[in-house]
């Protein structure tokens, strides 16, 4: 089964160290009468499932009274499943503390900004910063680990469940005391904190750490941005510490278990720190129709690809502990239902973008509680229908192909800088109406998805050598070490594109005192920024007021017509586009080529985009933010010359292509996200692992939601060079 990969460093290129493709479902035997259990196990085995996930919300069953444990229900359920050949992933059940705990120790509850304690009856209502809650978390984890230490049916553990999905903020006295202790450990002296937070502004200095307050949103004016960033650094520290308590116990009890966490909403988690280095791999719960409904990004296939690529950028290949199988709903949200064939297609999209395991949520739906219409593989009436058939088909196929899939990573020709906690939080602390780095990057990712360009997210500390180009979406914070890494990448032949405002703040979230983008980036790019300013949003009617969580959101404000037309034109080569959000005027050093100029208003004729030769490659500076039109120009004039081209030329809209590869094999995934047939030309030579025969170029016809995995021939044909080079 899966083995721990503790020695493997964090890397977007990292596969999971396993010889088994985990396929199965989260399962809740406590939700049904025991008479269902054997039938469930037999049906799972018949479907080709090899794994279930259990007990993430069962603390009240396992510890019905403080210090009294009862494992009987899960012992019997695990035994029934094990005898049918189904292994179990156990979960620490700390997302839902039992009522006896919150009643006896109310100080464990999170407190909102208005002083209201969170309530029992929901989930994630406990405060991860609470020492009392940590004590109880360690006790239940240790009891479960020791009880199942020698159970051969248990192969690994999931920590908690979707940390911070229901919220991470807390403002009570317990949080305040822990925040003050965190700051004292970080800064050592109050003078250092005052310097970092800019205590001379608005008389916000403190005399001692016990005077420090929590950053309330507009009470009554904005809080200092470094104060806000440090609060979210603290929340990330608290989350990692809480998980670390559990990981230490699990590792010490049985080092053969793998340990992971399942991400839901990604908030206040630092994936480049201890949170991820503690784990063997990450899990990512993926509900494409839910994200599409909530975010309106551009289609269910597109939004799924975006979320998966972001996740893979954190630590590499992952598993999907919860893959949408049907209609999903809570009282306040609901999703569309996957059509016939779509559930299988969504599962293969997860595999194509880095999943080394997929578990369909859930085995059967609950008949009670806040998710009675969150459908599973089996329906409420205990009848398996088309979703069961699709799950069975997928499980059989992916298990047969596991030796081809496992050990491969997802190909990326274009990397987008991502996975950096400080840059995310620094933007949120003072957004000035600008898109976040991820929002900006989404425009480029969307273009790549629609044109089937091998693209994903990567941190500058990762191995850049497999890329052809790297785009940095206006990272406010920058370090000299990252400059050295991207310079080495450029010298080896890579293309680096730096977005506007990159490097304009330091580690304390202060605006730097050198001319932007700072000494090392200025020298590398061959420019300095002489002036910057905001532009009217494309299609907008004025500037912005900022509101929401610490100014993270923006509200459009109607302005007079004279103020609503501050839009500048940008000319690059023969193309001219309207700029979005920001202009920068660039001072260009000798040896740096101007490849784009402002073409209107007072900035007309001044440099807006430059290119500097660095070794075999080049470094481009773009003095604005992306727009859809600008991405089109960059793709034609910058990315294509760098070798960034579609994996398959002229592929129909709605069909996605991705490559997973290793030193000895390349798998081309061609997936139809549409509810209608599609015909794909220019398909390279190879064997279709999901179909019959061998494809030797020409056309591939896919039915609605059809899937193809082509093992590419290791022969470079001139017409296929874009794919195989």
Proportion of beta-strand residues = 15-25%
| Cα distance spanning the termini | 34 Å
Radius of gyration: 26 Å
The averaged pLDDT comes out at: 92
Structural classification: alpha/beta
The largest β sheet comes out as: 9 strands, mixed
- How many structural domains can be distinguished in the coordinates? 4
Can you say what the CATH homologous superfamily of the largest domain is? Glycosidases
Count of DSSP H/I helices: 20
Sequence of strands across the biggest β-sheet: 13-12-14-15-24-23-22-19-20
Looking at CATH, which topology of the largest domain would you report?
A: TIM Barrel
Question: What is the level 1 CATH name of the largest domain?
Answer: Alpha Beta
EC number: 3.2.1.23
Domain Beta-galactosidase trimerisation: 442-644
Family: Belongs to the glycosyl hydrolase 42 family.
Protein name: beta-galactosidase
Report what the structure shows.
The protein is α/β, with parallel strands linked by helices and about 725 residues long. The chain has four domains: about 20-170 and about 225-410, Glycosidases (TIM Barrel), CATH 3.20.20; about 180-210, no CATH class; about 415-640, Rossmann fold (3-Layer(aba) Sandwich); about 655-725, Golgi alpha-mannosidase II (Immunoglobulin-like). It is built from 20 helices and 31 strands. The chain has a nine-stranded mixed sheet, with helices on both faces. An eight-stranded parallel β-barrel has the order 1-2-3-4-5-6-7-10, surrounded by five helices. β8 (about 330) and β9 form a beta hairpin. α5 (about 130-145) packs parallel to α8, α10 packs across α11 (about 300-315) and α12 (about 340-350) runs parallel beside α13. The longest helix is centred in the N-terminal third of the chain and has 29 residues, at about 225-255. The protein starts with about 20 loop residues before the first strand and ends with a helix. The model is unreliable at about 545-565 and about 715-725 (pLDDT under 50). It catalyses: Hydrolysis of terminal non-reducing beta-D-galactose residues in beta-D-galactosides. This is beta-galactosidase. It is an enzyme of class 3 (hydrolase). Belongs to the glycosyl hydrolase 42 family. Its EC number is 3.2.1.23.
